[in-house]
Prior knowledge:
oxidoreductase activity, acting on paired donors, with incorporation or reduction of molecular oxygen; TIM Barrel; Alkanesulfonate monooxygenase SsuD/methylene tetrahydromethanopterin reductase-like flavin-dependent oxidoreductase (Luciferase family); oxidoreductase; Bact_Lucif_Oxidored
Amino acid sequence: MPVAFAHHIRPENTVAAARRYRELFTPSRWSDRPYVMVAIETIVAESEEEAAFLAHPIDLVRARMFQGLGETALLPPEVAAGLEVPAEVRDAVRASGAAQARGTVEQVRARFAEVVARIGADELMLGVLVYDAQKRVRCYEPATKAAR
C-alpha cells in the first residue's frame, strides 16, 4: 500500500521510516510498487524574513508540543512576534522548522527538491500553516510554482 508521512509534525524520523517502508514493501492489488507521500509545512513569502514572521506562530505551537503542554491555538503573527520560544525547546523547534519549506519561492523550490531526493518522495502534500486565511491562500500560488 502507498504510505504518507507527517514530516510537518515529526521530521526526524521520515528518512528512516521511508527507507524501512521500501525495504518491507510487498506488492498488492492497491500498489505494485512503493509510493511515498510526504506532508511538509510550506510557507512562501516575498522574503525570508516575512516567511519567518508568518512561521513564528507555528513555532510557538511546536514549542508547547515539545514541552508536553498539548495543542494551542495558532496566534496571529503580530501577537506571536511578542513571544519567544522557550529556551529549553528552542533547538528542537529550530530543527523542526528547518526541516520544513519556508522562505522565498526559490528557497522553497530548493527545499522541495532536497526533501524529494533525501526521502525519495513520490508526492508532496503541502500544509500552509499560516494564521490569516487570505495570506494562507496567497501562499499556495507561489508554493505550487515552487513545486514545479
